[in-house]
Amino acid sequence: MPSVVCVGGQWGEEAKGKVFSQLSASSDVVVRFEGSHLGSQIVSLANIAVRLQLIPSGILNAQAKSFLGNGVLIDLEVLAQELDMLEAHDISLAPERLSISPDANLILPFHKRLEAVRPGQLRLNGRPYNTRGAIVAAEDRAGNLGLRMGDLLEPTRLADKLRDAVLRGNALLAALGGEVLSGEDIQSMIKRHTVLGERIAPYIKAFDTELRSSLLEQRRVFFEGSGGTFRDQDFDALDDIDMWSHKAGLAAGVAGVGPSQIDHVLMVAKAYTTRTGRGAMPGELTGDVAKQIQEQGDEIAQATGGFRRITWLDTVQLKKAAMIHGATCIALTKLDVLSGLDHIGLIRDYRNTDFPRRADFLADVEPDITFFDGFDVKDGQLMEDEAQWPNGLKDLIAAVETDVGLPVVFMSVAQKERAFVIRGEIGTQLFG
To answer: Which contiguous run of DSSP H or E holds residue 321?
Structure first.
C-alpha cells in the first residue's frame, strides 16, 4: 500500500471507522495528525471493536506502530481512560507500539470553564453546546501559550507553566463572569497532571525520524484525519467550529515530513449527508424519509443526544472538498442505510450558484436533485460482478464518480466488519 491520507469530505460525521479499520489492518504505521477527543470512531479488527477518540486505529493491529501527532489536542483524562479501555481488551500498549509527540498541546480544566462562557458560544436548550475545552485550547496553541506533552516530562516546569496558564485563564474567566480556579484547584490540577504525566511518560517521544524512514522504505503508512472538511476553520462560519484545520495537506507537515511523501488522499463520505447543530443544509429532508434514514443509520449526535439532520448526498459539496484536499479517490459508507427507499436523491448542482465561498452561505442555495431507483443491500451482500448490481446503485455510483471526477474505491454495505466492497486498482493498492 502506498502512503495515504484519509479525511472526511462532509461535516465530520462520515462513519470513517470502518474505512480506518481496513486501512490500519494492512498498515505498518498509523499517524493521527489532527483534531481532539471531540469526535470518535468505532474501529474493529479480529472481532474486537472499540471506540477511539485519540489513539490511532493502528493500535488494534499488533504489527503496526501508532503515532499521535503534534496537531492533536490532548485531554489527559480522556487519554488515560482510553488506555484503560484498551488494556481491558488485552491490547498491547508497549511503548514501542505507541508514540505521542512531545509537541502536542494539552486541553486543561480551565479551558473547559472558559469554553462555557466564551462570547458567541452556541447554546442548545439553554446550555453551552460544547464545553470540552478543545476550542480554547486551540486558541492557546495558536498563540503559543499552551502546555505541551513534553512538559509532562519535567514536573517542576509543568507546575510552573500550569500556574501561569491558570492565572491567565482566571483573568479571562473573571472578565467573562465565569468561576475562577482557586489556589486549591491549582494545586489539585498540578498533582493530577503530575500523576498522569508519570503514567503517560513512556509514550512521549519524537517519531518524525522513524516516520520519515518508514516512508523512504516504502512501508505502508496511513495518516488518519478525524474531522470533516466543512468543520474546518477556513470553510465554516459557526461559532462552535473546530479551531484547527482538517485539510489533508497538513497531514505530512504536522507529522514532520514533506507533502511529496504522500501518494493518495482518500476522501470518505456517507451515501447521504448529516449535520449536527445549526446551519444551512441544501435540500434538508424532513418527514418519513428523514426519519427512516435517521433510525436505520442510528444517526444520534454525540453532542446533543438527538437525531442528526439529514439531506441527500451532495456532489457539489464533495467536489469542493476534493479540491480542498487534493483527493485522489472516494470511500462511500452506509449505503445499506438507504435500503428500502423507493427513490434515492443525489444533489448534483445548485441552480443559482457554484459552491459558496463560505459554508454559512449555503442558506441561499437552490439544489438540483436527481432521483435514482431504490436498491436493497441491507443484508450486506453485494455481488463482486458489478453488472449484477441493482440498476439504481450502479447509476448512483456512476453519477458520483462523474460529478466529482474521482473513482469510488471503497463501499460500506452493512455494519458487519467485513461488509464492504473494494473497487479498482487504487482500491486494491490501499486496502489489499
So the answer is: helix 315-325
What are 372's three cell numbers? 435514482
- Entry pTM: 0.93
C-alpha cell at 322: 476534493
Beta-carbon neighbour count of residue 260 at 10 Å? 8
**Per residue in 112-145, pLDDT tens?**
998 888 766 555 444 445 678 888 898 899 899 9
Per DSSP (E only), the strands in 334-396 are 343-350, 367-373
Q: What are phi and psi of 179, to 5 degrees?
A: -85, 120
Domains and CATH numbers, the chain: 1-72+207-432 (3.90.170.10), 109-201 (1.10.300)
> What pLDDT does residue 328 have?
97
How buried is residue 88: exposed, middle or buried, by Cβ count under 10 Å (0-12/13-18/19+)? exposed
Which residues make beta-bridge pairs with 373?
343
Residue whose C-alpha is closest to residue 134's, from 107, 113, 114: 107
What's the chain's average pLDDT? 89
Query: What is the number of other CB atoms lying within 10 angstroms of the CB of residue 366?
Result: 11
**In this structure, are strands 48-52 and 41-45 parallel, antiparallel, or unpaired?**
antiparallel
